[in-house]
Automatic annotation (TrEMBL):
Keyword Transmembrane helix in annotation: yes
Family per similarity comment: Belongs to the mandelate racemase/muconate lactonizing enzyme family.
Binding site for Mg(2+): 174, 200, 223
Protein name: Dipeptide epimerase
InterPro entries: DgoD-like, Dipeptide_epimerase, Enolase-like_C_sf, Enolase-like_N, Enolase_C-like, Mandelate_racemase_C, Mandelate_racemase_N_dom
CDD domains: L-Ala-DL-Glu_epimerase
Gene Ontology MF: a single term: racemase and epimerase activity, acting on amino acids and derivatives
Keywords linked to the UniProt accession: Isomerase, Magnesium, Membrane, Metal-binding, Transmembrane, Transmembrane helix
Class of enzymatic activity (EC top level): isomerase
Pfam family, one: MR_MLE_N
Entry annotation: catalytic residues: 149, 245
Domain named Mandelate racemase/muconate lactonizing enzyme C-terminal: residues: 130-221
Length: 326
């Protein structure tokens, strides 16, 4: 058995500027892992995230630390004990899934018994001034599901502007930990009045205890507050939904376990993403087949995707073809 193991940093320009409450960026910087065995190559992609203490170089070093073990034939299950949940493990885990599927002549969809149907994905509106966000919403008003980035001192005007510009779209708002206990109740009331479907991570992780006591009509979804399966039980009295991202769970292996447990505990499930290419979205599209929300628009935010990328038709995203992944 011969193996080749390689990890590389790649950069993909974003179409314009992508802004959330923590800052702006003009490119997606990703780390790609490729594992070759007997002429068959599996690939995976991750997006290191500064909010979680990750850097691109640090993630690359984490992946490269596995090189000798990969040559000895390490599998997905052993990987779970070698790296912590996070971006590095995600890239390797997804590469191993891809390699296993191609080696067996099967699809990952068949291996995990996932449906292979197109999904409606949310389309993200970048944070900006209310007028600019309204214009962005107006351009995308035909999309059935919009995700609105918030987290400012004046989010009420932004929510109202977007709702007026896209009256028929379902709306998710994502505060990215930017609200406070002082303005939470007011924002919840506004969201309810505007018919917003879901509010994502309104308060900072670790400072969200008030969610257990505050009444609301709009569902609240954990993102920064939840990473892997072990986090779920403690969130039951605070959140109604959880956002599962492969870059948080450390790959598809843990994400499958986490989704099953989240559903058992009664959470609604969103399958989300960082801003990455179709290679990062591909396993998440399969994971999202029976989820309540899919937020997998990363490639739509890029100026250029990978060759053989996912097929998007408006807000529909189709399962990956095997020449991309899985």
């Amino acid at each position: 058995m011969t193996r080749h193991f390689e990890a590389t940093i790649e950069k993909f320009p974003i179409a314009g500027v992508f802004t959330i409450s923590r800052g702006s960026k003009t490119e997606a910087e990703v780390v790609t892992c490729a594992i070759t065995r007997d002429g068959v190559t599996g690939r995976g992609e991750c997006v290191p995230y500064k909010r979680y203490g990750e850097t691109t170089e640090g993630v690359l070093d984490e992946i490269n630390s596995l090189a000798s073990m990969m040559h000895d034939g390490m599998d997905r299950h052993t990987l779970q004990t070698r790296l912590r949940p996070g971006a590095a493990r995600n890239a390797v885990d997804c590469a191993l899934w891809d390699l296993e599927a191609k080696s067996l002549g099967r699809s990952v969809a068949s291996m995990i018994e996932a449906a292979e149907k197109p999904l409606i994905t949310a389309f993200t509106l970048s944070l900006g001034e209310p007028e600019a966000m309204a214009e962005d919403a107006r351009r995308n008003a035909a999309r059935p599901l919009l995700k609105v980035k918030l987290g400012t001192d004046d989010d009420e005007s932004r929510m109202r502007a977007v709702r007026q510009a896209a009256p028929d779209s379902r709306l998710i708002v994502d505060a990215n930990e930017g609200w406070t206990e002082d303005n939470l109740a007011r924002h919840l009331d506004v969201a309810d009045a505007l018919g917003i479907s879901l509010i994502e991570q309104p308060l900072p992780a670790g400072k969200d205890a008030i969610l257990a006591t505050i009444r609301r009509k709009v569902m609240i979804c954990a993102d920064e507050s939840v990473h892997a399966t072990g986090d779920l039980a403690s969130l039951r009295n605070r959140y109604d939904a959880v956002n599962i991202k492969l870059d948080k769970t450390g790959g598809l292996t843990e994400a499958l376990i986490m989704k099953e447990e989240a559903q058992r505990l009664g959470f609604a499930v969103m399958i989300g993403c960082m801003v990455g290419t179709s290679l990062a979205m591909a396993p998440a599209v399969l994971l999202a087949q029976d989820a309540d929300y899919a937020d997998l628009d990363g490639p739509l935010l890029l100026a250029q995707d990978r060759p053989d990328g996912l097929r998007y038709d408006g807000s529909l995203v189709y399962p990956p073809r095997t020449n991309l992944w899985g």
